[in-house]
Amino acid sequence: MAWRKSFFPKRASNEQMDSELRFHIEEVTEENIASGMTPEEARRRAILEFGGPEQIKEDLRDVYRVRIVESTIANLKSAFRFVRKSPSFSVTVILTLALAIGANSAVFSAIDAVLLKPLPFPEGDQLMRIEQRHLKGSNPTTAVAPVRLEDWNRMNSTFQAMTGYYSENGSESSGALPEKVTRAWVGPRFFQVWGVAPATGRGFSPEEETFGGPAVVVISDRFWRRRFNADPDAIGKALRVDGHLFAIVGVMPVSFFFTDRDVDLWAPVPANSPEAQGRDATWYQAIGRLKPSVTIEQARANLATVQAQLGEQFPKTDKELTVGIEPLKETTIASARRSLWMLFGSVSLLLLIACTNIVALLLARATQRQHEISVRLSLGATRGAIVAQLLTETFVLALLGAMLGLLAANGASGVFRSLASSLPRVEEIRLDARIVLYFDGLLGGGNASLRTYPRASRDAKKFVWGAGPGEPDASLCAESFAMVAGRRASGACAYFAGWFRPARPQLSGIGTSGSRV
Amino acid sequence: MPIEKSDLLQGTLDMLILKIVALGPVHGYGISLRIRQISKEVLQVQQGSLYPALHRLEKRGWLASEWGESEKGRQAKFYKLSAKGRKQLASEESNWKRLAGAVVNILQTAE
């Protein structure tokens, strides 16, 4: 804790103060006794002369008290005066900060939502995409035959459940006008795999998942609002899709859009329905939920064994097939990953450019303020007080920049969502205040330390020790060097940022396959 | 008639303390005693001013302190001058001499 000792000056404890003052009173008492007083009188006089030890102790405590609130308010006032006094400088710095913070926050929000956060399902990391792969042939990965998926689901030991789905457009004609709907045919255990239950009503019963059972659908929240005006009595009503009647049994929560965000209805495919029997009828997209603490390697090995057994059982259709398992999140965002990181790289360089520019501006500014700082130092301001004042100014600039940056980021997030609407998971992108704060801290802290420290301490040294004749030249030289270096760095960053630019337009084109998961 | 602290020029007490402490490590009581003796009872330092001044000077790093035994074997806090304090004392002394000299000059001219 050596740094603490050096940072906080040693302060006397209460006992130390007491014993220091007690010593004084005792000495005076003895002095009085020596001059002929009785001990009681001597002590009374000593205490009287002392004028109240408690009052003195309070004064002593005042010596060590740092007036944080007062000095902070004074610093804030002077910082706002500084900002108002040089509007063009302040506006430049604030706008640069706002731009950098806004762009970075918007892009980082996108990266956070798309790449970093788990899928918005309970235990989303357990969700796997399961593929049927052909060892030979031009198209190695195909859809899965429903009957084979049932075999996998029955024979494996690593998945909680597997399911499949297939979506198509249909025409719903129970209303006044026919309407185009997107219908997903889903295999057994569909809602169980997602871990999401209908918000209203129920999922499919075993009879409904048996061929020849009642024909039912679960509808999406969007369809429920559009068609039934969110009427709870919609449960039990019938829809006529492509000429067949389906009873509505449930409504999914608003956050559930799968297979894609356009889906209106989910209808069960019974495992024993005739279309699902052929081992060559491959029309399912398959997903599964791993058992807790099962790794993807274990699942792959397990399914390889299962498929080998099926290969012996059905040599004609299954011999040359293997099973592919990938995290659903990876297959959803794979197409966007590279572009997003590229974009992040380019806005990070933008941030660097902003930082170097602001540092250069502040350095230039500090040169002009050398006089002011010298005056304050010679009037008795401590080095800490000067640093605190300069830090407060930078803090106020950063705060204003961040507030503007928050607005910019909010707008940029909206623009981002509309430009890259085909980006997977784009609807999950939300501006996160923590991200803005983080970038703000980064910028403000970086600038402040870069700017104030060398200058203020150098000025203080000059004041305390007296400046040698050569010293001001040396410091000016170092300063110009820093400014030129800053300019160079920002030039280099601008070059690299431009280099990354071609990556941006691609973003709007990517993810079309991803969004159809 | 003794001069109270409030009548002393601002900052003079600090200089006097530094000067006394420069003679060797000494406790607060000793400082007040010596100021009284050396000034021939003209200057009387109130304890209410002495101790805050001592702590202030210590906080600035001009004084260092140490607990030790007094002549009569009591625990007392002894102050001594630091290198920084020595420098400060030198500059304050020369300032004071210049100021006092100037005041004396003016008084003599006015006579």
Q: Which SSEs are present, and which pair or pack?
A:
The complex is a heterodimer of chains A (517) and B (111).
Chain A: H1 2-7, H2 14-34, H3 39-50, H4 53-64, H5 68-85, H6 87-116, E1 127-134, E2 141-142, H7 146-155, E3 159-172, E4 179-186, H8 190-194, E5 200-201, E6 216-219, H9 221-228, E7 238-241, E8 244-251, E9 265-268, E10 285-290, H10 296-313, H11 315-318, E11 321-327, H12 328-368, H13 370-378, H14 383-419, H15 433-465, H16 471-500, H17 503-509
Parallel strand pairs in A: 4-9, 6-8
Antiparallel strand pairs in A: 1-2, 1-10, 1-11, 3-4, 3-10, 5-8, 6-9, 7-8
Helix pairs in contact in A: 2-3, 5-14, 6-12, 6-14, 6-15, 12-15, 12-16, 12-17, 13-15, 14-15
Chain B: H1 12-22, E1 26-27, H2 28-38, H3 47-59, E2 63-69, E3 75-81, H4 83-110
Antiparallel strand pairs in B: 1-3, 2-3
Main features:
heterodimer, A: 517 residues, alpha+beta, 13% strand, disordered N terminus, disordered C terminus, B: alpha+beta, Arc Repressor Mutant, subunit A, 3 strands, 14% strand, globular
Radius of gyration of chain B, whole Å: 15 Å
Structural class assignment of chain B? alpha+beta
Query: Describe the biggest sheet of chain B?
Result: 3 strands, antiparallel
Question: Termini of chain B, distance in Å?
Answer: 25 Å
Count of the separate structural domains of chain A:
3
Q: Approximately what portion of the residues of chain A adopt beta-strand conformation?
A: 5-15%
The number of distinct β-strands of chain B equals 3
Q: What topology, given as strand order, has the largest sheet of chain B? A: 1-3-2
What is the radius of gyration of chain A computed over CA atoms, rounded to a whole number of angstroms? Answer: 37 Å
Order of helices and strands of chain B: HEHHEEH
Counted by DSSP, the helix tally of chain B is: 4
Uncertain runs of chain B: none
- H-E string of chain A: HHHHHHEEHEEHEEHEEEEHHEHHHHHH
Query: Looking at CATH, which topology of chain B would you report?
Result: Arc Repressor Mutant, subunit A
Shape of chain A: elongated
Mean pLDDT of chain B: 85
Total domain units of chain B: 1
